[in-house]
Amino acid sequence: DQQVKQNSPSLSVQEGRISILNCDYTNSMFDYFLWYKKYPAEGPTFLISISSIKDKNEDGRFTVFLNKSAKHLSLHIVPSQPGDSAVYFCAASGFNSGNTPLVFGKGTRLSVIA
Amino acid sequence: GAGVSQSPSNKVTEKGKDVELRCDPISGHTALYWYRQSLGQGLEFLIYFQGNSAPDKSGLPSDRFSAERTGGSVSTLTIQRTQQEDSAVYLCASSLAGVQVPNQPQHFGDGTRLSIL
Q: Each residue of B85-117: pLDDT tens digit?
């Protein structure tokens, strides 16, 4: 059973608009959440993370929101740029360390159209 | 660069052969992880090292898979008697470790694309 779910396999957004990528999780022991971006033939690149003690973390154009009661997080990219086109993976870990193995969703392919 | 380095980047081999994949983590990172990504799937955890010991081997799919880490640095993942279902991209990641250093992201290499004929 998937513990981390990204229900949208793909998303298409116009350049300059907001991209919203969603992620749901089932394990209430998860307390650290991350987003990774992956280009073809490259490894995932760490983008942004959030601890369960927060509900928002912002880094430039990227903001992650966490709703613990709904077991839901989202990544907002604004404004979206063509270089943001990639596969985005949501990941989670537990036990307040971030050093346990990550559980990944299956990814959402974002296409930003110029 | 100073990132996670994996070799080879690509490996094609015949079914039944053994393969060895190598990972060189970021200097100073004591935690090292192996994952694999099969076609159309997310990343699947295989094994985790803290220093040279492996507290969690729960993700290894069969006893044909083994891994070791020496000197708290380089790790090798070995697959014996390869099968076609072993075809995947094998990814290595490292992070700063320890209870005193919580919530550290894992940083990934570019992976080894393994194809079993």
A: 999 999 999 998 655 566 788 999 999 999 999
| Cβ-contact B81, B64 below 8 angstroms | yes
- The helix/strand/coil state of B16 is coil
Contact A60/A76 with Cβ under 8 angstroms? no
Nearest to A104 among B31, B42, B102 (CB): B42
Give the residue on A whose Cα is nearest the Cα of B91: A43
Q: Least CA distance to A41: which residue of chain B?
A: B110
Regions in chain B scoring below 70 on pLDDT = 1, 97-102
Is residue A90 classed exposed, middle or buried when 0-12, 13-18 and 19+ CB atoms within 10 A define those classes?
A: buried
Task: Say whether B86 sits in a helix, a strand or coil.
Answer: helix
